[in-house]
Design a protein that fits this description.
Helices cover 42% and strands 16% of the residues. It is of the alpha/beta class and 249 residues long. The protein has one domain: Metal-dependent hydrolases (TIM Barrel). A seven-stranded parallel sheet has the order 1-2-3-4-5-6-7, sandwiched between helices. Strand 6, helix 7 and strand 7 form a beta-alpha-beta unit. Helix 4 packs parallel to helix 6. The model has no long low-confidence stretch (mean pLDDT 85).
């Protein structure tokens, strides 16, 4: 049975990312083709990216051109670099887009070394501490991208009770945890169940880096967990509309 929920995707990379290949307009037209009602174009930022203003101007033009077809938001993806939840970006860059995705792309060298030496729980401890700091501070990021990617890469897991606490904190701090079922993470077996039971802000996102990946995320896709992500998607859409209106005043 086809999913009846409105489709939205707030993590799509363009060719402004060093590992992306899709043009801004190709992303928009492809999203419209697959029936998406809202998208967020998100690109990797390290430090202060000089190209952000150019990208914003081009997205603004597309927003006007396709206003009757789709809602378009701009985002940046930044790396979480330590157990204090520090983001690898200059503060001024955080205000050059509608929202920020804070993502775990790897572990610090000392944590990787501990894990390689047999202390596999070092990755879990670092991840939990980083998540906790991100959620405690709030405000700097609105989405935590593929939150347990580093855990899955090492085939590690987190205590379900601990993960449940983090989900509740995400709800209270108005931060959203991203679910990427097409790319197989989060793959923690209890994530979907917790998302259904808690009033957690979990969203669906493709993390597509090419037009093909974007199409793959929605071509014949019937595996949305409606009760899990529909609430989160709607809440995030409302938040982003408010943030965009304030930023563009």
């Amino acid at each position: 049975m086809r999913c009846s929920m409105e489709k939205m995707d707030f993590h799509i990379h363009s060719d402004y990312s060093d590992d992306g290949s899709a043009s801004l307009e190709d992303i928009v037209t492809e999203a419209i083709r697959w029936g998406l009602v809202a998208i967020g174009i998100v690109d990797h930022v390290r430090g202060d990216a000089a190209w952000l203003e150019e990208r914003e101007a081009r997205i603004s033009g597309l927003r006007k051109k396709y206003a009757d077809d789709i809602a378009i938001f701009s985002g940046i993806e930044v790396k979480v670099v330590d157990d204090q939840g520090t983001l690898e970006v200059e503060d001024r860059a955080l205000h050059k887009a509608d929202y920020v995705v804070a993502s775990f792309h790897g572990t610090p060298e000392h944590v990787s070394r501990q894990s390689a030496n047999g202390d596999h729980t070092a990755v879990v401890r670092w991840w939990c501490d980083s998540m906790l700091k991100l959620l405690e501070e709030g405000g700097r990021a609105q989405i935590i991208g593929h939150p347990d990617r580093v855990l899955n890469a090492s085939r590690l897991t987190v205590d379900p009770e601990k993960f449940g606490q983090l989900l509740e904190m995400a709800t209270k701090s108005r931060m959203f945890l991203e679910w990427n079922p097409v790319t197989t993470y989060p793959a923690q077996p209890f994530v979907q169940e917790l998302g259904k039971k808690a009033s957690a802000n979990i969203i669906y996102a493709s993390d597509a880096h090419t037009i093909g990946e974007l199409a793959d995320a929605y071509r014949g896709h019937t595996s949305f967990e409606e009760g899990m992500v529909e609430r989160g998607n709607a809440a995030l859409l409302a938040l982003l509309k408010s943030r965009q209106a304030t930023r563009l005043r």
